[in-house]
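[step 3/7] fold_predict: job queued, chain A
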Amino acid sequence: MGKPTDANCIDPNILFAFQDTVEIYLVFFLCYLILFPLQVHAVLRQRHILPRLFTGSVTLELGAVLANVIDVLTFSIDGEGYPKLAVFGAILDILSRVRSYYFVRTVSQLPICDFLKSP
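[step 4/7] structure written:
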């Protein structure tokens, strides 16, 4: 597998393939913790369907990242983690991407996007 570098601040004995995943997931989790309240505020202020669709996607992605953060943190601490939680996070991530697809598809059907269509 390879030897991990000393740059990993959690545990230098984790596999090379999992280096820096803790930091990456923590950064994403922090980004979603900032984005989620802003998106909820936008939904409460607006009555359009688009912010609601996007909020569903952000909520699913926040749950997926949270599940992955818990799994990767416990894996870096005890070397085992929670594989079922990782699968649950992956499923939530897939559902979030499907929801994002429907969001983009809904936006593309709006009259404001007619100028983007080629003649």
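[step 5/7] annotate
The two ends are 54 Å apart (CA to CA).
The mean pLDDT is 80.
exit 0
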